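Hey L., structure's done. Input below.
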Amino acid sequence: GLPLARQEKIWAREGISLSRATMANWVIQCSQSWLKPLYKHMKQELLTHSVIHADETVVQVLKEEGKPATSESRMWLYASAALLRHQVRIFEYQPDRSGKRPESFLRGFAGCLVTDGYAGYNQVQNVTHCGCWAHARRKWREAMPEGATVKTSKAAVGFQYCNKLFAEERKCAPNHPKYRQEYRQNRELPLLEEYYAWLNTVHPEKGSKLEEAVRYSLNQKQCLMAYLDHGEVPISNNLAENAIRPFTLGRKNWLFCDTPKGAEASAIVYSLVESAKAN
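Output:
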């Protein structure tokens, strides 16, 4: 996350002339010649897992063919589920946010894919799409007025339902996946049935934050309920959000990549370092 331009100045203070261009070429050369084969092996390992988390964030690449320097590209993140013994974190640079990017990356994967509500992930075939209850809860929180209570705000009621769900999940989280699945069917399924029955009684004003929260849960119902049948699947995509955070924090320092080769090298280096940290 430390920009090469800043490193150049640090070296200069030590009396060493080392340009950012030279350091960038070192990173790219190492990534392409030595690290990329390991990166590809890690990807193949990840695709054998039963659960994969996915997320993406903005990255700016200045010298990208056919695109202005100010345009947005994407850094995609694919990660192992927390319960798996061997953890893999794969970052992949792509010039856009098209759903064909995860569809291409995940070709051959046939497990559970945990994501937020972005429709592009629907292009990924032959997987079980699992939604994120943290996103659903966030929608309710954003719709709550200041000082809202369950007596004065529908959003507060929705938020409380989500909190109850997370509380139930914490009780079974340490257990074996098979037990978690049984617990969810017995304790969480009735709560969700009550939640969706209540949702059908809520008629929010069009264009409001409340309507957005209601629509998210209704549109994502199948994905949000999918975790009930898979004990190894968590109820949120927080793992992916946490895994991609080091990249987003680094981006605040270095701001952009100069070339697509540099962005790809960055993806490879982040993949190796974040996988090592996760293990």
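Residues 74 and 94 are 5 Å apart (CA to CA). The beta strands are 51-59, 73-80, 89-94, 112-114, 128-130.

-- N.
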